Amino acid sequence: MIRLVSIDDHRLFYEGLKALLDKADDMLLVNSYDNGLKISNVLLCDRPDIVLLDIHLPVKSGISIAREIKSFAPEVKIIMLSLEVNYAFAHDLKAIGVEAYVSKEIDAEGLLKLIREVWKGEVYDFYTHTAPIADKVHILSEEFSLTDREIEVYEYIKRGFTNQYIADVMNRSVLTIMTHRKNIKQKLRIVQGNKLPFDDIL
């Protein structure tokens, strides 16, 4: 049996997930949580093979929780779920060691197939689902000379995250994020306050 734990603050998503996994004879949803504040206790008590983890959670981000899981129990596999899949998150999650990252819009059979593949240790291509973004990233890196790290920060800024939040999820200091923000503005020649242009690029 594949032992699973869900960390997600959307009740309807959890109920749908439970109904799906109850029909799978090789999977067991051991427990569910709406945050990852006591993740060490979760890992010790529930002993999951795979954690299904929402990327946006209250108090502590899913990325921070993923980093903590991999530090505390690297053998536990993580499938990160999000309403929106993007390059910045994929880049960070792959670096942390997360096994897979998919949209919550994935269909039932697709999710079951992914769980089985991750459990077996099959390699997941992080950029398959972010392929449409590749050309846009190329524009930012080639035409505007943004580094990979600056592109990540740009993604977070564009989605309205604060410097502190970005620093937390990227495991950097707030000062470092502020420096990246300044460099991005200079490279993109921003003249209207904090508003980033080129919304059609990303």
Automatic annotation (TrEMBL):
Residue ranges of every copy of the Response regulatory domain listed in the record: 3-119
PROSITE patterns: HTH_LUXR_1 (PS00622), RESPONSE_REGULATORY (PS50110)
4-aspartylphosphate sites (modified residues): D54
Pfam family, one: GerE
InterPro entries: CheY-like_superfamily (IPR011006), EvgA-like (IPR051015), NreC/VraR/RcsB-like_REC (IPR058245), Sig_transdc_resp-reg_C-effctor (IPR016032), Sig_transdc_resp-reg_receiver (IPR001789), Tscrpt_reg_LuxR_C (IPR000792)
Keywords tagged on the record: DNA-binding, Phosphoprotein
Highest taxon, organism lineage: Bacteria
Protein name: Response regulator transcription factor
Gene source species: Sphingobacterium faecale
